[in-house]
C-alpha cells in the first residue's frame, strides 16, 4: 500500500523525477529543518530515504521522518544491509547522498575515514561506490574557525564532496535554508546545456514616477525572470541579471544590476551589450510601455481635486537588444490580457518579426492562476516560422527549464 505522504511527490515539479536521494541527519538542532528539506525534494519529484545517527534521534523522532517521506527510517544497520542496498553497487543505489544537517563531528569522521554511525557507514559506502555526496554543515561559527575542522572540510572538497552553506547572518553561522539546499540539489541534476555560455536576463517590473512619492507600475514580482536566471545558472551559464524593483532575492551567482525605471532598464541592457557579447538574451521583465511626460518635484498636494497628466511611450527594450546584439539569440516575452488565443498569438508573432527576435513567449495575464505574482505560468513559445510550442500550466521554474531547452535547440538549428 502506498504511504499517504508519497502523494506529494512531483506536486511542484518533475525537476527531480526519478532521483533517489538518501538524506542523512546528524545530531544538530538544525535537524528540525530536515522534514522540510525532505518534503521539498519530494515535491520536485524525488524519492527520499532517511538515515539518522543516534544523536539525531534525540533531536527529532524517526517517526517524524517516516511520516515526512513515507519510507522506513534507518537508525541502525541490520541484516538488510541497508547501506549496501542504497549506497552499494546495486540496482537500488541512490543518485545522491545528502547530509543535512552535518555536524563538525561527522564531517571530521568522514574526512578521517571513521565509520561508527549509520550516517558515516552510508557515506563511507557511497564514497567507495562513487555516489555524489553533498554536505550541509551546521555548527557554531567558532567551530568553522577550528583549524582541524577547516582542514577536514577542505580535504573533503578536494575529494569532490560538495558543500552547501553556511550562511553568515547576525554575526552567526547558520545552516543553509531548506530552499537553498533544495535548489542546490536541483542545480546538481540540471543538464548543463548552457555550459560556457553568457546569458543576459531581465526581471521584474519598472516604475515611472509622477512625483517623488507616486508612481505607475505593473503587478510583476520578477518570479518568472528569476526562474529563468536560476535555471540558466543551473544549466551552466554565466548570468547577468538586470532586475527591477522587487522583494525577491536574486541568485548569489548572478551579476546583478538593479534598476527602477524603464529607461534605467533599457540603459542597463544597452550598456551590457556594448561591453559584452552574450550568447542568449531572455527578456521576461515587465517594463512599462508608458511614462509620464512631466514629473513633478516633491509630492503633489493631496488637496488638488483634479490633475491632468500625459503619458508617452517608452522604448521597447527587446528592439534595443537586437540593435546592439545582432548575433545574440533573443527570447522576448509578450503578456496579453484576454482575447482569443489566435489573436494573442498574432500580436506576439507581429512583435517577433518586427523586432527581428528569435523566439517570443506569450502568456495571458488576465488569468489569476498564472502570470503576475503567481508561482505558475502557462505559455506559448513562438518562433520565426510561426511554429508554436505550448507549455502547459506548471511552476515557473519548470516553465523556465522548458523555455531554455527550446531556445538552445532553436539556436542550434539557426547556426547550422
Describe this structure in words.
The structure is a single chain. This protein has 416 residues and is an alpha/beta fold. It has 2 domains: 4-189, Rossmann fold (3-Layer(aba) Sandwich); 198-415, CoaB-like (Rossmann fold, 3-Layer(aba) Sandwich). It contains 14 helices and 20 strands. It has helices spanning 34-43, 54-57, 62-69, 82-87, 104-112, 118-129, 141-145, 147-158, 178-189, 223-234, 262-275, 317-324, 341-354, 396-415, and strands at residues 20-25, 47-52, 73-74, 96-102, 133-137, 162-163, 167-169, 172-174, 198-203, 208-209, 215-216, 238-243, 255-258, 280-283, 290-292, 311-313, 329-336, 359-364, 376-383, 388-395. The protein has an 8-stranded mixed sheet, sandwiched between helices. Strands 3-2-1-4-5-6 form a 6-stranded parallel sheet, with helices on both faces. A hairpin with a 2-residue loop joins β7 and β8 (172-174). The model has no long low-confidence stretch (mean pLDDT 91).
Summarize the structure.
With 416 residues, the chain is an alpha/beta fold. It contains 14 helices and 20 strands.
Amino acid at each position: 500500500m502506498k504511504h499517504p505522504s508519497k502523494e506529494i511527490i512531483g506536486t511542484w515539479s518533475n525537476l527531480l523525477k526519478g532521483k533517489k536521494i538518501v538524506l542523512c541527519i546528524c545530531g544538530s538542532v538544525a535537524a528540525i529543518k530536515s522534514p522540510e528539506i525532505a518534503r521539498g525534494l519530494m515535491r520536485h519529484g524525488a524519492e527520499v530515504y532517511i538515515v539518522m545517527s543516534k544523536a539525531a534521534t534525540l533531536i527529532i523522532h524517526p517517526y517524524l521522518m517516516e511520516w515526512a517521506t513515507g519510507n522506513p527510517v534507518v537508525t541502525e544497520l541490520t541484516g538488510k544491509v541497508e547501506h549496501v542496498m542504497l549506497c552499494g553497487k546495486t540496482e537500488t543505489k541512490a543518485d545522491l547522498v545528502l547530509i543535512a544537517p552535518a555536524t563538525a563531528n561527522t564531517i571530521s569522521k568522514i574526512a578521517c575515514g571513521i565509520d561508527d554511525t549509520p550516517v558515516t557507514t552510508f557515506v563511507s559506502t557511497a564514497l567507495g561506490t562513487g555516489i555524489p555526496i553533498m554536505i550541509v554543515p551546521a555548527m557554531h561559527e567558532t567551530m568553522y574557525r577550528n583549524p582541524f575542522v577547516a582542514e577536514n572540510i577542505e580535504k573533503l572538497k578536494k575529494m569532490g564532496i560538495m558543500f552547501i552553506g553556511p550562511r553568515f547572518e547576525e554575526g552567526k553561522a547558520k545552516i543553509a535554508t531548506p530552499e537553498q539546499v533544495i535548489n542546490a540539489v536541483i542545480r546538481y541534476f540540471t543538464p548543463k546545456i548552457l555550459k560556457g555560455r553568457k546569458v543576459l536576463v531581465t526581471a521584474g517590473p519598472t516604475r515611472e514616477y509622477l512625483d517623488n512619492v507616486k508612481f505607475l507600475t505593473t503587478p510583476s514580482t520578477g518570479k518568472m525572470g528569476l526562474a529563468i536566471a536560476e535555471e540558466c545558472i543551473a544549466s551552466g551559464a554565466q548570468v547577468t541579471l538586470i532586475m527591477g524593483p522587487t522583494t525577491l532575492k536574486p541568485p548569489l551567482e548572478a551579476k546583478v544590476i538593479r534598476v527602477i525605471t524603464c529607461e534605467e532598464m533599457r540603459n542597463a541592457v544597452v550598456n551590457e551589450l556594448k561591453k559584452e557579447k552574450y550568447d542568449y538574451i531572455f527578456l521576461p521583465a515587465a517594463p512599462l510601455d508608458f511614462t509620464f511626460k512631466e514629473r513633478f518635484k516633491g509630492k503633489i498636494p493631496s488637496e488638488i481635486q483634479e490633475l491632468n497628466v500625459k503619458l508617452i511611450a517608452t522604448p521597447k527594450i527587446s528592439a534595443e537588444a537586437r540593435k546592439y546584439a545582432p548575433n545574440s539569440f533573443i527570447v522576448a516575452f509578450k503578456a496579453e490580457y484576454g482575447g482569443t488565443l489566435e489573436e494573442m498569438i498574432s500580436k506576439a508573432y507581429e512583435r517577433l518579426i518586427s523586432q527581428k527576435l528569435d523566439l517570443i513567449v506569450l502568456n495571458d495575464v488576465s488569468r489569476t492562476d498564472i502570470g503576475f505574482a503567481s508561482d505558475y505560468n502557462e505559455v506559448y513559445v513562438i518562433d520565426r516560422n510561426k511554429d508554436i510550442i505550448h507549455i502547459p500550466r506548471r511552476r515557473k521554474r519548470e516553465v523556465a527549464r522548458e523555455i531554455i531547452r527550446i531556445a538552445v535547440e532553436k539556436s542550434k538549428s539557426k547556426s547550422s
